[in-house]
């Protein structure tokens, strides 16, 4: 009896220690001091970090080309084991006329997926860009059992970036079916499209759903990494077509 109690206590202590270790590891990411004003994108990169990807476009529709970029902590041989877990930070900076300097509007350290989040494909972070409507696009692609891709679109709304559209695609390379979900968060409509490029007996279809009001507006400032979202669950829809 005593032996059983001691063993149970040891297991509990070990479990608590493991939780503490992982909590410390998760919270040990050091966010660097990023300059708030610079003349070009290189002026924002702090020591120990490197440029991962950048784009330009008129986000605030003032006629100037603004900056959107992602930096990643520089890895060394000592932390090669954790290379795919190196932190990434999204930065948005507006160009300020007439000086033409850039001023930081957003620093977001917990939105861009890590290199380890893409499955066997590797790094899922595909692109960051601004379209001609001033909409910020962030693209991901990966392979687990199936190929998948995700596109997230944000539009500046009263000085904050509002999530306005999400496109998620799943492609099964074995049976050839592709499923695409498009979430229009302005019209509050979700569209599901199914097609099959191999089996002609499978009927293609498109369905539309009304996104129920319980999904509130989402802003880039508050969103975690997309693989941690749960507000686009299908029970939040009502079939309309």
Protein described:
The protein has an eight-stranded antiparallel beta sheet with strand order 6-7-8-9-10-11-12-13, with no helix packed on it. Strands 1-5-4-3-2 form a five-stranded antiparallel beta sheet, with no helix packed on it. The chain is globular. Helix content is 10%, strand content 41%. The chain contains one helix and 13 strands; from the N terminus they run αβββββββββββββ. It has a domain at 145-241. With 241 residues, the protein is mainly beta.
Which descriptors would you attach to this protein?
241 residues, mainly beta, 5-stranded antiparallel β-sheet, 41% strand, disordered N terminus
Give a quick precis of the structure.
The chain has 1 helix and 13 strands; from the N terminus they run αβββββββββββββ. By secondary structure, the chain is mainly beta.
């Amino acid at each position: 009896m005593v032996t059983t109690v001691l063993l149970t206590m040891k297991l509990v202590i070990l479990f608590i220690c493991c939780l503490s270790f992982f909590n410390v590891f998760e919270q040990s990411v050091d966010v660097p001091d990023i300059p708030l004003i610079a003349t070009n994108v290189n002026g924002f990169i702090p020591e120990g970090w490197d440029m991962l990807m950048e784009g330009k476009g008129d986000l605030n529709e003032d006629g100037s080309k603004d900056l959107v970029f992602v930096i990643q902590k520089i890895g060394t041989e000592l932390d090669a084991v954790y290379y795919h877990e190196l932190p990434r930070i999204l930065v948005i900076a507006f160009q300020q006329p007439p000086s033409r300097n850039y001023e930081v509007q957003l620093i977001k350290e917990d939105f861009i997926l890590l290199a380890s989040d893409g499955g066997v494909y590797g790094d899922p972070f595909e692109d960051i860009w601004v379209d001609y409507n001033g909409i910020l696009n962030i693209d991901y692609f990966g392979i687990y059992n199936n190929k998948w891709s995700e596109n997230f679109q944000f539009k500046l709304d009263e000085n904050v970036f509002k999530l306005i559209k999400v496109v998620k695609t799943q492609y099964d390379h074995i049976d050839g079916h592709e499923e695409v979900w498009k979430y229009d968060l302005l019209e509050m409509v979700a569209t599901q499209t199914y097609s099959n490029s191999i089996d002609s007996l499978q009927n293609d279809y498109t369905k539309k759903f009304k996104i129920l009001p319980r999904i509130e507006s989402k802003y880039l400032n508050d969103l975690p990494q997309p693989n941690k979202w749960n507000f686009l669950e299908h029970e939040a829809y009502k079939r309309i077509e």
